[in-house]
Amino acid sequence: MAQKGKIQKKVKRPLIKLICTECKQRYYHTRKNPTNTPDRINHLKFCKICRKRTPHKETK
Ligand SMILES: [Zn+2]
Fold this sequence. Notes:
By secondary structure, this protein is an all-beta fold. It has strands spanning 15-20, 26-31, 42-47, 52-59. The protein contains no helices and four strands.
């Protein structure tokens, strides 16, 4: 009987700020797994300032 060993990996998930690409305001924070999504993420989110859904991109 093979014993299943649980491998606990400490995955660093940095906090990512999402800014609206139209008004450049920071509004959302998210976390992503850098190994799963190495590319820059682009989320369509509702912006309070633009009052519409705008693409939010990550910033540092
Ligand atoms: Zn905006």
